[in-house]
């Protein structure tokens, strides 16, 4: 039995060496479970950042803007913040760690065209739309009509109710029903393409032909999440990202490796925006830039489709976290810390720098005292919360963009149009 054990150990280290050579992360998880579960969406994103699945600010902001639980059926929401895939009937969501790797690999920025093959619930397409901005293209092809209906319901819910919607300039996704292997060969090409089902080598070239030169394709290719960049008309760069396990592509009924089906799956039509829609985009952008330009300095020239939806989104580094306040506040005596400063200081021969130095020391001392008092109060509140179990609740931020639109001297129907008829 000793030689058997040695043989198994040798195989293990050989596999580990191969993984290192391919620069793949070594993880026992294939479709999730790589990070700890969170209590809410923000905590889930914190865990993904800590594990280096989310590495860029753009991807972090998109993930924080959309609550993953909103894409679950109500009775399954308790599982939404686990790093696991979820399926119910035809409805499917990949694990958060997979989506974050996909988002990072796509290298998204405003104005790109994106095609999502197997768009599912629309969760990924909606996050991508927050980055593409109003002048991008956001298309999805989904096999099941009932899933497309579900995706549009969730998209409408996000637009109408999300606290984050007004902080972004959004590229709304469009979905069509069809098999992604039936897309006509002469179809338009995209800057970014993602396939959410396992692809074998037989279909790799088919997927690659959907890309423009300079475009990026991300797909699960033979159990490896793979990034393919089209560097020229017939040149490509391939990079393995992480080991995954996806359900394979569903082949058309009359499809073989040599004979392709005559049926075609039309892509969503590319519609030119109406003047009315362009006016809404421009007005909202102008109000948003004015709102966030607190310093009063001009932000420079350039098209407002160039990423300002995120640049002026009002999200700080760690996303739209709310300040928490206690439901029942405790009353206590305030403590004022001050330092005994002389009322005057001797003048010197260098523009009274001696006096200025004393004043600066006084301000620093007062600032340190106030900071210490604030930290002490925070520690007391945390201790009281642990002892009493007193609940905390979030203070929702003020939607400045909404308030500015409501103050405009416009008819109410026009204001509602500018607000996308949002409920909040």
Core attributes:
7-stranded mixed sheet; disordered N terminus; globular; alpha/beta; two-stranded antiparallel sheet; 424 residues
Strand order of the main beta sheet, please?
A: 5-4-3-6-7-8-9
Mean pLDDT: 77
For the terminal residues, how far apart are their CA atoms?
A: 68 Å
Helix content: 25-40%
Backbone structural class:
alpha/beta
What pattern of helices and strands is seen along the backbone?
Answer: HHHEEHEHEHEEHEEEHHEHEHH
What's the β-strand tally? 11
- Determine Rg (CA atoms, Å): 27 Å
Strand content: 5-15%
Count every helix, treating DSSP H or I runs of 4 or more residues as helices: 12
Shape: globular
Unreliably modeled segments: 1-30, 295-355
Q: Biggest sheet, in brief?
A: 7 strands, mixed
Task: Describe this structure as you would to a colleague.
- This protein is 36% helix and 14% strand.
- It is built from 12 helices and 11 strands.
- It has a 7-stranded mixed beta sheet.
- Strand 4 (137-142), helix 6 (145-161) and strand 5 (174-177) form a beta-alpha-beta unit.
- Mean pLDDT is 77; it is low at 1-30 and 295-355.
């Amino acid at each position: 039995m000793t030689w058997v054990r040695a043989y198994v150990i040798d195989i293990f280290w050989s596999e580990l060496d191969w993984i290192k050579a391919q620069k793949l992360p070594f993880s026992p998880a294939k479709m999730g479970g790589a990070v700890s579960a969170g209590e809410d969406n923000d905590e889930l994103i914190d865990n993904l950042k800590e594990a280096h699945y989310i590495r860029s600010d753009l991807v972090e902001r998109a993930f924080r803007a959309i609550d993953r639980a909103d894409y679950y059926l109500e009775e399954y929401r308790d599982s939404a913040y686990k790093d696991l895939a979820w399926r119910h009937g035809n409805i499917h969501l990949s694990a958060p760690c997979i989506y974050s790797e996909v988002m990072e690999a796509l290298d998204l920025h405003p104005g790109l065209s994106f095609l999502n093959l197997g768009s599912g619930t629309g969760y990924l397409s909606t996050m991508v739309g927050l980055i593409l901005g109003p002048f991008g293209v956001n298309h999805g092809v989904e096999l099941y009509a009932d899933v497309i209906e579900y995706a549009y319901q969730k998209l409408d819910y996000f637009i109408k109710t999300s606290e984050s919607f007004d902080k972004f300039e959004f590229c709304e996704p469009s979905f069509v029903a069809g098999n992604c292997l039936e897309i006509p060969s002469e179809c338009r090409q995209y800057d970014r393409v993602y396939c959410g089902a396992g692809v074998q080598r037989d279909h790799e070239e088919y997927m690659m032909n959907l890309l423009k030169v300079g475009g990026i394709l991300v797909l699960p290719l033979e159990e490896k999440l793979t990034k393919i960049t089209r560097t020229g008309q017939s040149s490509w760069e391939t990079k393995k990202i992480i080991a995954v396990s996806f359900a394979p592509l569903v082949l058309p009924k009359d499809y073989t490796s040599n004979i392709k089906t005559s049926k075609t799956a039309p892509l969503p039509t590319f519609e030119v925006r109406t003047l009315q829609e362009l006016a809404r985009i421009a007005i909202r952008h102008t109000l948003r830039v004015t709102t966030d330009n607190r310093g009063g300095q001009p932000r420079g020239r350039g098209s407002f489709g160039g990423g300002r939806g995120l640049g002026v989104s009002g999200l700080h580094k760690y996303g739209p976290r709310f300040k928490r306040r206690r439901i029942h506040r405790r009353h206590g005596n305030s403590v004022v810390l001050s330092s005994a400063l002389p009322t005057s200081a001797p003048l010197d021969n260098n523009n009274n720098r001696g006096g200025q130095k004393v004043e600066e020391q006084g301000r620093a001392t007062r600032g340190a005292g106030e900071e210490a008092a604030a930290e002490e109060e925070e520690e007391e509140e945390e201790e009281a919360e642990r002892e009493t179990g007193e609940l905390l609740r979030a203070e929702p931020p003020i939607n400045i963009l909404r308030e500015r639109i409501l103050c405009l001297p416009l008819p109410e129907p026009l204001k509602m149009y500018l607000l996308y008829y949002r409920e909040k």
